[in-house]
Amino acid sequence: MTLSTYHVLRPAWGRLTLAVLAGAGAAGSAVALAAISAWLISRAALHPPVLHLMVAIVAVRACGLSRGVLRYLERLIGHDAAFRILAGVRVGLYRRLEVLAPAGLADFRRADLAQRLAADVDAVLDLVTRVLLPYAVAAVVGLASVLVIGALVPVAGLTLAAALLVTGVLVPLLQRAAARRADGRLAPLRAELATGVVDLVHGMPDLLAYEAVENRRERLADLDARLTSASRRSAATAGVGAAVTALGTGVSVLAGLLAGAAAVRAGSLPGELLALVVLTPLAVFEIAGPLPAAAQRYATARTSLRRLTEIWSVPDPLSGKDATVPTVAADPLDWPAEIHAAGSTASIGTRVPHLKMAGVTAAWTADRLAVTELDLDLPPGARVALVGPSGSGKSTIAALLVRFLDPRTGRITLDGTDLRDIPAARVREIVGYLPEDAYLFDTTIGANLRIARPGATDADLLGALAGARLRDWVDTLPDGLETLVGEHGLALSGGQRRRLALARLLLTGARVLILDEPGEHLDDATAGALVRDLLQAAGERTVLLITHRTADLAGLSVHAL
């Protein structure tokens, strides 16, 4: 899919049309106000009867009032349309990322994705309010002004038309040719700089250990210099556009003065209309003046749209069904979803599924396989430890079992049903995954848990915490479930963070639990106690424990990679 300007603007064409009409009315009122005022002053200098001026006086008042009202309506309707478009693009992008993550986003950095989701999407707002509306309004009002001036003094009308074309068309084209590289590189350079800063901050301990901080700082300084240079080139072209606009204004006024004076001398133009011919271009160029800058913003917005298109163009990582639950006479996945908490254990009855992988080959990228011809059997209630060195494909297996990724060859079945025939959302209701870097949000304990089940009561939350061996600790806290966990859960210890993430997983009601390196970054004693508590909290569920540790595997069936 190509995210073109047409696709972005199409949902709000009606509101945008109203905004353009209101804007043209406001700009037309401003031009008319200047023209009528010029005629009124010139006419009044001849001391005619006051009744001869009444129509012009009323028109001046009407234009002055309507300009403000129509400008307000244009801003109101235009920004309403822009924010609706912005919301549509952002929601659509979120939904696309939800489909792609994590397998489809392997080629993107997190900071770069954040930049696309923020700055690049915000560029859509500029596309509407600072590009489309100014150009449409200037086109309508400029054409009307050229026709009026041309009817009075053809030479002045042609000069005004030429100046408007130079300002609104030729200058942007020259700017685009001169600054194509500068403006086209702004968004990618900003994203690259943001990614570099995030990498530096997050990787600071390792970079300090390997004495690589200075090298990273030099790279960031080089990126900053390139971004500054591109910004300067962009600003320089904007300055040239402003200079040409001022020159066009002066030429139009001078041409109107000279041609108008000649027409008055020849008797083809009433003297009181000379001021109208001379001053109208000034009002017109107040509207047309921002066009070069608008064209430059359009170039930047197009680059941002191309970056957003790259996300929409990523192939879906899932090849099977992902929209509706298959309709069969007896759905083998129709188990009850309730969790029955009893002390420190949880039971979901006997309907735990049989999950099986047979001859599975899978890869995150096209050029490198992650697992090859893999067989793995997880009967109901099994306790299996998947062990192997880093890079052996353990996390890939977890991604396959929760349908973050579909196998290239082979089959994964759930009670005999191919996983590709089950919607991914349904699979993730049945197969729960606790990743190594399970995220905790900078909010309360209760809010972090309710991500798993938004309608859960406090009793449900406390039951899940009991299963994760955290309830006694939470009961000692002054704020209980309303205790803040800090950014990334830093107000908690490492073991508490992992247990809170486990409680969130237990709250989902999943029948199969996949626990990816639960003891990572913990000391041996804490990691061992955590693994034992995890297995006990799982109750009758199937558990797949992914680890590279060989200790604390008692009671588990070991599958080595």
UniProtKB/TrEMBL annotation:
Domain of life: Bacteria
Membrane topology, record value: Multi-pass membrane protein
SUPFAM superfamilies, per database record: ABC transporter transmembrane region (SSF90123), P-loop containing nucleoside triphosphate hydrolases (SSF52540)
Transmembrane portions of the chain: 50-70, 132-152, 158-175, 235-261, 273-295
Positions of the ABC transmembrane type-1 domain: 18-300
Pfam family, one: ABC_tran
PROSITE patterns xrefs: ABC_TM1F, ABC_TRANSPORTER_1, ABC_TRANSPORTER_2
Subcellular location: Cell membrane
Residue ranges occupied by any ABC transporter domain in the UniProt entry: 355-561
Keyword terms: ATP-binding, Membrane, Nucleotide-binding, Transmembrane, Transmembrane helix
Family matches, as NCBIfam families: CydC (TIGR02868)
Protein name: Thiol reductant ABC exporter subunit CydC
Originating organism: Actinoplanes palleronii
Lineage: Bacteria, Bacillati, Actinomycetota, Actinomycetes, Micromonosporales
